[in-house]
Specification:
With 186 residues, the protein is α+β, with helices and mostly antiparallel strands. It is built from five helices and nine strands. It folds into two domains: 137 residues; 36 residues, no CATH class. The strands form four sheets. It has a three-stranded antiparallel sheet. Helix 1 runs antiparallel to helix 5.
Length: 186
């Protein structure tokens, strides 16, 4: 949990992968359409699992918060979305903020001093480092220009990787499954 609120908050835009049925089934049988719509939910949950797996491979300290922030939503008939940072699920507001910051990045630098000091003249801040463990630094209101600048963060864009993989493996598998089941019914 963050103990200060940064000046930059990632955009409210959620990261989302929409999974919808093909709107024009004229050239396909009614059986194929029914089977395909049954598989949309399976596609959505398998895509979520893939996204969680990719996060597990590429993230370390933010992995659990990122994974908790993934949900599957059903906005309407024949529609599912895998959403990062959306409503529902078991993620806290801080988890969702962190997940979106990791995914989208934080492009702007900002001075952390106002948030750290909160109107005080100075404060001792504990920092966790990888090599030295926990260390303490003093933040002062005057005389430390440029010492507490957050440099920004480059987003990892796992969503794009997941979309490519889902289009190559998950969706063709379920389209083929729906086609085979529709053929058997004919």
């Amino acid at each position: 949990m963050a103990w200060f609120k940064p000046a930059y908050v990632p955009a409210v835009v959620l990261e989302e992968i929409k999974i919808e049925g093909t709107p024009n089934f004229d050239e396909f049988s009614e059986e194929f359409e029914l089977e395909f719509h049954k598989n949309l939910k399976k596609i959505a949950y398998e895509t979520k699992d893939l996204w969680m797996s990719e996060a597990g491979k590429r993230l370390k300290r933010s992995r659990e918060a990122y994974q908790r922030s993934l949900t599957v939503q059903n906005p309407g008939e024949g529609q599912y979305s895998v959403v990062l940072g959306g409503p529902g699920g078991r993620a806290s507001r801080q988890d969702k903020w962190l997940a979106l910051a990791v995914e989208q990045g934080i492009p702007n630098m900002w001075d952390m001093k106002p948030g750290l000091l909160k109107g005080r003249e100075s404060r001792v801040i504990p920092l966790n480092t990888l090599d030295k463990g926990r260390i303490f630094r003093t933040v002062k209101a005057h005389g430390q220009e440029g010492k507490w600048i957050y440099p920004g963060l480059i987003g990892i864009n796992l969503r794009d990787t997941v979309i490519i993989e889902a289009n190559l493996t998950i969706i063709p598998k379920y389209v083929d499954d729906a086609y085979q089941k529709a053929l058997k019914k004919l």
